[in-house]
Design goal:
With 183 residues, the chain is an alpha/beta fold. The protein is 28% helix and 33% strand. It has a single domain (3-179), classed as Rossmann fold, CATH 3.40.50. The protein is built from 5 helices and 9 strands; from the N terminus they run αββααβαββββαββ. The strands form 3 sheets. The chain has a 5-stranded parallel β-sheet, with helices on both faces. Helix 5 links the parallel strand 7 (122-130) and strand 8. Helix 3 packs across helix 4 (67-78). It is globular, with a radius of gyration of 16 Å. The mean pLDDT is 95.
């Protein structure tokens, strides 16, 4: 990584606020709202999410609810691709595919319109955070079930100490900010 990139990555990291004990005691929440409020930081984050895929044909960018929508639509625009929202249950009005996935304590479910991706589509999946990998694995399962090819996964933040990549099989994962421990 070049010196200028290291400086920019450090700036992005400084725009992430740690919020202790949210949403429950013992968790340090990585709050991206200061980054979203900083025009240069937001632009830089979107550019770093886009860069690895700029010379790859992408038909659809899939964004996981809800912060994946923020970055996903911008990356889709940069790549001249369509955008597909993956939502929590009950949010999509038309025929949908759904997948239930494991969480640390229980299960959750995500949905996508049946006609959002088709066989042969080349798909990039975007979210703000990769933690335990459950949501991203659910998104991958949804996209793959429709016959589309997952070209890659891109996230702003990876909490590597939670080993979320292990749930994503062989899909290439690109993360901008990697945290190897909770602090």
């Amino acid at each position: 990584m070049e010196r200028d990139d290291r400086i920019r990555i450090t700036k992005l990291r400084e725009l992430i606020r740690d919020v202790p004990d949210f949403p429950k005691p013992g968790i340090i929440f990585k709050d991206i709202t200061p980054l979203l409020g900083d025009p240069a930081g937001l632009s830089l984050a979107v550019e770093y999410l886009t860069q690895p895929f700029r010379h790859t044909h992408i038909d659809r960018v899939v964004g996981a609810e809800s912060r994946g929508f923020i970055f996903g639509t911008a990356v889709a625009r940069n790549l001249s691709a369509g955008f597909v929202p993956v939502r929590k249950p009950g949010k999509l009005p038309c025929e949908k595919a759904a997948v239930e996935y494991e969480l640390e304590y229980g299960t959750d479910r995500v949905e996508m319109h049946m006609d959002a991706v088709r066989p042969g589509h080349r798909v990039l999946i975007i979210d703000d955070l990769l933690a335990t990998g459950g949501t991203m694995a659910g998104c991958c399962e949804l996209v793959a079930s429709r016959g589309a090819e997952i070209v890659g996964i891109a996230v702003l933040i990876e909490l590597a100490f939670l080993n979320g990549r292990s749930k994503l099989g062989e899909y290439p994962v690109h993360s901008i900010l990697r945290f190897d421990s909770e602090s």
